[in-house]
Amino acid sequence: HFFAVAENGGSSSCSSSASDQECSRDSDAIGESSRSRGPTLRQLERQRRCDAQEDEERHIYTQEDWERLRRLYRDQGGTTVEYPEGEVMSVAPPGFVPPMVARQTADGKGRGIFATRNITKGSMTYGGKDNYAFFSTGEAFRRFVGALSDSEACDVMMWAWPQVNMGRDFETLIVVLLDSNSLQNHASKNGGHGGLKGGQVANTGCPRGMECGMFDEYALIDIREGDEFLCDYDDFFDADLWEEFGL
């Protein structure tokens, strides 16, 4: 259904992991043959010393930072995905601004995103696909990551996730959200990680019984100004799909 993305070890309809290589324009970021040879995700993370960054306070990206990453994606041939006529992609109104701000969390998760106003249950919190990057091969993904600094590469590898039924041909693609919503952290709809009772509960996603646009997210409960946005990574992320890309 919807997408989003995340800070600690996940992906999005909210986010998760990624990879590395060299910047070039020869091939479209959405097109090549499926499985490619090259370093695995874990090997790329070791090359970039991502483990050494885990205990550091990570960078909060500015609007200029996000624009530079999206420009790099376009410069490498990256484009958006198109869907068959009649498929609902997004109902976000023109100029919709997600009511969120990124900052460090107070509970030790790292970065997160927080509501900038009170939001009633069922209201849109994110919409549209303009800031997403899509990769049909591991090679295209490695090339994008390879053009980044170590800290940026580690972030993109943490935020990215493979997702099925994407685009006009409903294929599996690697997806990365290149804006602040990539920092959205995970919580189960039942509370906490893996549904552990007493933990935080996912408060964004596609409400039960609602037909959501592919790239849209809504408040699952009333959210107060200053509350952290949390989504359930299990709605979209399957780690086994990385193997399809040789990662």
UniProtKB/TrEMBL annotation:
InterPro entries: SET_dom_sf (IPR046341)
Organism superkingdom: Eukaryota
Membrane-spanning ranges: none
Segments of this protein annotated with the region Disordered: 1-56
Bias type Basic and acidic residues, positions: 43-56
Comp. bias (Low complexity): 11-21
The protein, known as: SET domain-containing protein
